[in-house]
Amino acid sequence: MAKKKIGKLPPRYLFMLNPYADVRLSKCPQCQKLTYLRKFALFIHIDAWGPMALGKTCRYCSRCELIMAHQDELEAQLAYSFSQMAPAVIGNAYLVLGTIDKKVWKEGLAGGGEHQGEMLQHVADFKRVLQLVVEPGGWYPAEREQPQ
């Protein structure tokens, strides 16, 4: 089955949502190089609300082009945003779909926002969404399979 694209720009970046509150990604899980902070305009769909552009500072590996967002920080930022606009939406399921051009996102913040159809012209889907799996350290039985 063909994958549907939402944005009109070519897919860009890999994306990883870190569900572990006690794990911080100072090194890239793929290449083990140091990551740094970078602000992205994320395009997020929230159930019972619709699409939203959210400026979020995330960990970024320029070598792998991997954006790593911490789920607890993202949900706190979404809850704060919706506490002002629509408190009933807080806690609804959401999906991070891609990124928006920063220039267009900043214009929207200044009040020169476009309609949703025109906004999709400036959205880039993710190339791939990766899952983070953390094996906690410690002693394990010898017969247990080794993590790969």
Automatic annotation (TrEMBL):
Superkingdom of origin organism: Bacteria
Name of the protein in its database record: Uncharacterized protein
Species: Azotobacter beijerinckii
